[in-house]
């Protein structure tokens, strides 16, 4: 029997704000829950019920989490009429077995699917077989998460071997790039994208300017946070 998904929000049409598909029209499914607790998390309302991040604000799971049947979520996503559907969180692979029927229903209707993940879970083979592309965002030390929680070698190794994976790192300054380089070497990571930290347009632009030359010099890709530039911290866009 299919299990319900734990959903935070479903919204669209909008544009993918980050990474290789930045600017593409899409719909978003944001799932609840995360196994990490990054100090600068931009979606703490999906997991932070005690105020560990977000300036100590505790969010309310009764308001933020909704158990929803897969079929209802599929219908809502299809109604946005986008080619691309982005599944994000929180950490969506924490519910990946429950995502299998959703992905099957959406790919049957010709949808492209990207899953944003923190890279601590290996992808389920059925999601891989369905053609899902994984946008993997391993966390660096400035996240405040302990190394053993944020870097799971077996998961990173298996995600890096998938043909559609990209690796996106939130960076503050050029020192963070050395940490990225070590992970790229250790796990043979392909398709590296660097994204500036920031929850306001000013912060994103400032950090992007500080990082740009060094990112190009290292042979990597640079992405902004288009949604932050356009809409700041407004939710559901
Ligand atoms: S992994 Fe992502 S959702 Fe989870 S705490 Fe870190 S930034 Fe937030």
UniProtKB/TrEMBL annotation:
Signal peptide coordinates: none
Co-factor binding details: Binds 1 S-adenosyl-L-methionine per subunit. Binds 1 [4Fe-4S] cluster. The cluster is coordinated with 3 cysteines and an exchangeable S-adenosyl-L-methionine.
Domain of life: Bacteria
Binding site for substrate: 15-17, 30, 88
GO process terms (BP): tRNA queuosine(34) biosynthetic process
Radical SAM core domain: residues covered: 21-233
Residues annotated as binding Mg(2+): 43
Cofactor(s) recorded in Swiss-Prot or TrEMBL: Mg(2+); S-adenosyl-L-methionine; [4Fe-4S] cluster
Coiled-coil features, chain-numbered ranges: none
UniProt key word Metal-binding: yes
Entries under Pfam families matching the protein: Radical_SAM
This protein's UniProt keywords: 4Fe-4S, Iron, Iron-sulfur, Lyase, Magnesium, Metal-binding, Queuosine biosynthesis, S-adenosyl-L-methionine
Matches recorded under PROSITE patterns: RADICAL_SAM (PS51918)
Catalyzed reaction equations: 6-carboxy-5,6,7,8-tetrahydropterin + H(+) = 7-carboxy-7-carbaguanine + NH4(+)
Pathway stated in the Swiss-Prot or TrEMBL entry: Purine metabolism; 7-cyano-7-deazaguanine biosynthesis
Binding of S-adenosyl-L-methionine, residues: 40-42, 90, 137-139
EC number: 4.3.99.3
InterPro entries named in the record: 7-CO-7-deazaguanine_synth-like, Aldolase_TIM, rSAM, rSAM_sf
Single GO molecular function: 4 iron, 4 sulfur cluster binding
Binding site for [4Fe-4S] cluster: 34, 38, 41
Role this protein plays: Catalyzes the complex heterocyclic radical-mediated conversion of 6-carboxy-5,6,7,8-tetrahydropterin (CPH4) to 7-carboxy-7-deazaguanine (CDG), a step common to the biosynthetic pathways of all 7-deazapurine-containing compounds.
Family per record: Belongs to the radical SAM superfamily. 7-carboxy-7-deazaguanine synthase family.
Subunit structure: Homodimer.
Record's protein name: 7-carboxy-7-deazaguanine synthase
Organism: Streptomyces filipinensis
């Amino acid at each position: 029997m299919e299990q319900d998904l734990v959903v935070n929000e479903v919204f669209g049409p909008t544009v993918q704000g980050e990474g290789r598909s930045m600017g593409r029209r899409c719909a978003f499914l944001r799932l609840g829950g995360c196994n990490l607790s990054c100090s600068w998390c931009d979606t703490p309302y999906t997991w932070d019920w005690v105020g560990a991040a977000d300036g100590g604000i505790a969010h309310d799971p009764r308001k933020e989490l909704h158990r929803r049947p897969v079929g209802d979520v599929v219908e809502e996503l299809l109604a946005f009429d986008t080619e691309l559907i982005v599944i994000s969180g929180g950490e969506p692979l924490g519910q990946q077995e429950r995502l299998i029927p959703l992905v099957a229903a959406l790919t049957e209707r010709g949808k492209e699917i990207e899953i944003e993940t923190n890279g601590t879970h290996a992808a389920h083979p059925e999601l891989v077989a369905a053609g899902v592309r994984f946008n993997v965002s391993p966390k660096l030390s400035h996240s405040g998460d302990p190394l053993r929680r944020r870097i799971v070698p077996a998961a990173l190794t298996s995600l890096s071997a998938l043909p559609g994976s990209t690796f996106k790192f939130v960076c503050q300054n050029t020192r963070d790039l050395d940490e990225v380089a070590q992970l790229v070497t250790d796990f043979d990571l392909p398709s590296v994208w660097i994204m500036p930290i920031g929850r306001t347009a000013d912060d994103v632009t400032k950090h992007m300017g500080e990082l740009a030359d060094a990112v190009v010099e290292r042979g990597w890709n640079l992405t902004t946070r288009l949604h932050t530039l356009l809409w700041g911290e407004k939710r559901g866009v």
